[in-house]
Specification:
This protein has 6 helices and 5 strands. It has 160 residues and is of the alpha+beta class. The protein has one domain.
Length: 160
C-alpha cells in the first residue's frame, strides 16, 4: 500500500514538473527578429538581394507592414534575380494563414514570370522554403534557402 502511494506521489510530481516546463517554455515569438536578421547577415553574403522596406513588401506580397509586429525583407536586387528573404512576426496567430497565402501567391507570380526562359530562377522558386512556427512566417528563395531556414530555427531554439 505504501509503495502505491509513493508511486502515485512521484507520478504527480513528475506530471507537475512537465506542466511547469510547458508553461514557462519560451517560444520563437519571444525572439526579436533583429537576432535572426543578424545571424543571417553575419553568416551569409545574401548576394542578389538588398534590404527593402514597407512599400516594396506591399508591392511584392500585398502585405501591409503595419499589420505585423516586426519584419525584415531582403528583396531581389535586379529584375532577373529571384533571391528573396521575408520573415515576419505576426501580431497574433490569426494572420498566419493569410500571410502564408500571400507567400504562395508571390511564388506563383514569380514562377509565371520566369516560366520558359528563366530556368535557373524557376529551379530556385521550386525549391523555395515557406512556412511558419507560432507567429513567425518565412519566405526564403535562393540557393541557400534551406541553410537560411536552419539558421533561423537555430536562433529560435537557442532563445527557447
Amino acid at each position: 500500500m505504501k509503495k502505491v502511494i509513493l508511486f502515485e506521489a512521484l507520478a504527480v510530481l513528475v506530471l507537475a514538473g512537465v506542466m511547469l516546463l510547458l508553461l514557462y517554455r519560451k517560444t520563437p515569438a519571444d525572439v526579436p527578429l533583429s537576432d535572426v536578421n543578424s545571424a543571417l547577415t553575419e553568416k551569409y553574403s545574401l548576394s542578389g538581394m538588398e534590404p527593402a522596406g514597407d512599400m516594396r513588401m506591399k508591392r511584392a506580397f500585398s502585405l501591409n507592414a503595419s499589420d505585423y509586429a516586426e519584419y525584415f525583407y531582403f528583396a531581389p536586387d535586379n529584375t532577373m534575380s529571384v533571391n528573396e528573404i521575408l520573415i515576419v512576426k505576426c501580431r497574433d496567430e490569426s494572420l498566419v494563414s493569410d500571410t502564408l497565402s500571400a507567400f504562395e501567391s508571390r511564388l506563383n507570380v514569380q514562377k509565371k514570370n520566369f516560366d520558359g526562359y528563366g530556368t535557373d530562377q524557376t529551379a530556385l522558386l521550386t525549391q523555395a522554403r515557406t512556412g511558419s512556427d507560432g507567429v513567425y512566417c518565412w519566405f526564403l528563395v535562393g540557393e541557400e534557402a534551406s541553410s537560411w531556414l536552419e539558421t533561423c530555427k537555430s536562433v529560435w531554439e537557442v532563445r527557447k
